[in-house]
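Explain the record.
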Amino acid sequence: MAFIQYLTFDGTALPLPDSYEVQMDDVEADSGGETEAGTVQRDVVRSGVVSIPVTFSVSVKWLKTLTGFKQQEKITVGYFDTETLEVKTAEMYVEGYKASLVKDTSRKGLWTVSFTLKEF
C-alpha cells in the first residue's frame, strides 16, 4: 500500500509526518465586532486561509533540509487537502519552527521538528 504524499516544499517530497492537520481560518477586518444591539457583525476579508501545523521525526539530514526551508521567505507548498482529499498548491511561510533532540545516536541523533505553515 502506498502512502499519501502529504507535503512537498518547492517540489521536494517531505517524509511522512508524525502529525498533520489542515486548518482553514477567516481573516476579518477591524470594522467587525459587536453592535450596540448585541449582535455580532463579521466583515470577512478573506475566507479559507490555510494553516498547517505539522511534526516530523527526522534524521540530521532532514533536520538540515527543513531548517533551510525555514530560512526562505516563501515556499511553494503542495499539501494534501483534507476537505477535497486532493493535493493543492499554495505559497506559504514557516512559523514557530522548533527542533528537539529525541535520542542521540551514532548518526547525530533522531530529531523532532515541528512548525506551522501559513498561507500568504
Notes: Residues 60-71 form the longest helix (12 residues). Helices lie at 60-71. The chain is about 10% helix and 55% strand. Strands lie at 7-9, 12-13, 19-20, 23-28, 33-34, 40-41, 44-58, 75-81, 86-103, 110-119.
